[in-house]
Amino acid sequence: MIKILIADDHAIVRKGLKQILDEEPDMVVVDECSNGSELLAKIGALECNLILLDISMPGRNGLEILEQLHREKPTLPVLILSMYPEEQYAFRALRAGAAGYLTKVSAPDELITAIRKVYWGGKYVTASLSEKLASELGRNIAGPSHDELSNREYQVMCQLAAGRSVTEISDGLSLSVKTVSTYRKRILTKMQMKNNAEIINYVIKHGLLD
Predict the structure, then answer these.
(1) pLDDT, tens digit, for every residue of 137-168?
(2) Could you give the domains of the chain?
(3) Between the chain's N and C termini, which has fewer beta carbons within 10 Å?
(4) Whole-prediction pTM value?
């Protein structure tokens, strides 16, 4: 039996996923979490053998939680199910230890297929992402500049490019304004940029916005 924990901050999404999974005879949802801290608190005692994890959650985002899960339970498969398109987070999620990546617009049948594949030890990516991965592996050049950013810096960069202010970002990520400002400075330094306009141009050019 595939025992699944769903980690997503939207109750309606969790309910919808549970309805889909409950129809499968070899799957059962054993618990739900609305944020990463709750997930980490439960995971030690909970009997689950697969996690469905969202990226955008209050506090620590899914990629940070994923990295910690991978350190503490390296054999536990984690399937990312996110609103963000593959171009934004799939590569980062797979590097951080995810067993697969799907967007929330995927069909239920594809979700079921992905769950079974990662449960049995495989990796799941869509055909389009597989082509991109093969293309990246075939290149013998340095990766794009944003690969140098930490997951949190990358998240802040995308939100700055979406036109959100430092205050709005701090509220959304449950961080102080000072902390977000520090991330912004690091982004500008690492990316060799001068202002938000250059960040916006870069993010649009590389297709990193939804």
Answers:
(1) 555 445 677 878 888 888 899 889 989 999 99
(2) 2-138 (3.40.50.2300), 145-205 (1.10.10.10)
(3) N
(4) 0.71
